[in-house]
Amino acid sequence: MSTVTADSCAAPDQAAPLPAGVDLEKETVIAGTVVADGGPVSGAYVRLLDATGEFTAEVVTSGEGAFRFFAAPGTWTVRALSRAGNGDAEVSVERGVNQVELAVAPD
Amino acid sequence: MSREAVLVTADWAEKNIGQAGVVFVEVDEDTTAYDGGHITGAVKLDWKTDLQDPVRRDFVNQEQFEQLLSSKGIANDDTVVLYGGNNNWFAAYAYWYFKLYGHGDVKLLDGGRKKWELDARELVKDLPERQPAQYTAQEQDLTIRAFRDEVVEVIGAKNLVDVRSPDEYAGRLLAPAHLPQEQSQRAGHIPTAASIPWSKAANEDGTFRSDEELREIYSEAGVDFSKSTIAYCRIGERSSHTWFALRELLGQQDVKNYDGSWTEYGSLVGVPIALGDEPGEAPRA
């Protein structure tokens, strides 16, 4: 399992629990699940786009379809690419953990 | 240099699996993906444990690089095809290392793991069996590597390209958004640096945009192609991706990657920093 450290830059394992030391008073976490036909989609590529549509980060969903970003309060778009199809959702988030469900379907 | 010489398609890769003299190498910071399945015959390189010095902040030296490639069974005349997850960032970083140490024929797999997976192409768990080789590396080619003193010196003279996300550039975030934000560096960017996120160079599936699109993107964002360029990000891997686009795809002559990047610059005492979305002015001499 990967650990999140200041000297790394790769996307961490999305099945891992929130790293110890993450202060939810300060962090804005966008966490959720990619689903298709009601079931989770593992191995989906989920990217976080800022309010201008610019790429910010990308992770691969866990076996349970989970993903997680550390952002800032505001409006963001999460977009998923997967073999089950693509999809996106706009989210407005606050500090703390913000849950989002992201549905994908064939184009 | 033509695009075909440095970048191969997934179709090309599929046809060349098992070809004598062609070695596929999967590179990433977290190599668990490789363990779960990789391109047939691909060798694994762990960016952290294979390519970084275990003690000092620097990457492996010439001798360590020779030992590494020899042990992996990679010879000087092999065609090395690099790919990985994280949008090929670490594969591009490794590409830059291979160039730095003078490897002759090295290529990136366009789209890396992402496109390969989304295309549902075959991945296997079998580990390759390769005989050790005798690899000889050249001295580092420092015409493609920038160090901090040069970066501070050329503010306002060379193109500086900050390839982090706009929020990292402006100082609103300190790290990419898949990582916690509490970091030790100061936030912001090097004054005069143009904000051109690495992702501008790539399509959604991780493949590079066309040369025409790339040239337009960089010109419009303020890269003067008649000048030398230094690219940086946070730890030097996303900027390797942009370095690849500028030097290897567009053929710009003098492009360096500043691998110290923001984790070094943002910790330096006394250097100028600009905040906000504008590049900012060079400090008066």
Based on secondary structure, the structural category of chain A is: mainly beta
CATH class of chain A reads: Mainly Beta
Number of helices of chain A: 0
Largest interface: A-B, 38 and 42 residues
CATH topology of chain A: Immunoglobulin-like
Overall shape of chain A: it is globular
End-to-end C-alpha gap of chain A: 33 Å
Structural domain tally of chain B: 2
Name the assembly state: heterodimer
Q: Average pLDDT value of chain A?
A: 87
| Helix and strand run of chain A | EEEEEEEE
How many DSSP E strands of chain A? 8
Q: What proportion of the residues of chain B form beta strands (DSSP E)?
A: 5-15%
Q: Span from first to last CA of chain B?
A: 38 Å
Q: List low-confidence stretches of chain A.
A: 1-6
Number of strands of chain B: 9
Please give the radius of gyration of chain B in angstroms.
Answer: 19 Å
Tally of discrete structural domains of chain A: 1
Helix content of chain B: 25-40%
Number of helical segments with 4 or more residues of chain B:
11
Largest sheet of chain A: 4 strands, mixed
Description:
The complex is a heterodimer of chains A (107) and B (285). With 107 residues, chain A is mostly beta strands. Chain A has one domain: Immunoglobulin-like (Sandwich), CATH 2.60.40. Helices cover 0% and strands 50% of the residues of chain A. Chain A is built from no helices and eight strands. Chain A has strands at residues 28-36, 39-40, 45-49, 55-60, 66-71, 74-82, 85-93, 96-103. In chain A, the strands form two sheets. In chain A, strands 1, 2, 5 and 8 form a four-stranded mixed β-sheet that branches. In chain A, strands 4-3-6-7 form a four-stranded antiparallel β-sheet, with no helix packed on it. In chain A, a hairpin with a 2-residue loop joins strand 1 and strand 2. Chain A starts with 27 loop residues before the first strand and ends with a strand. Residues 1-6 of chain A have low confidence and may be disordered. With 285 residues, chain B is α/β, with parallel strands linked by helices. Chain B has two domains: 3-140, Oxidized Rhodanese, domain 1 (3-Layer(aba) Sandwich); 144-265, 3-Layer(aba) Sandwich (Oxidized Rhodanese, domain 1). Chain B is built from eleven helices and nine strands. Chain B has helices spanning 3-6, 10-16, 32-36, 62-71, 89-100, 112-118, 148-153, 166-170, 211-220, 238-249, 261-265, and strands at residues 7-8, 22-28, 43-46, 79-83, 105-109, 159-162, 194-195, 229-232, 255-257. A five-stranded parallel β-sheet of chain B has the order 1-5-4-2-3. A four-stranded parallel β-sheet of chain B has the order 7-6-8-9, covered by helices on one side. Chain B starts with a helix and ends in a 20-residue tail after the last helix.
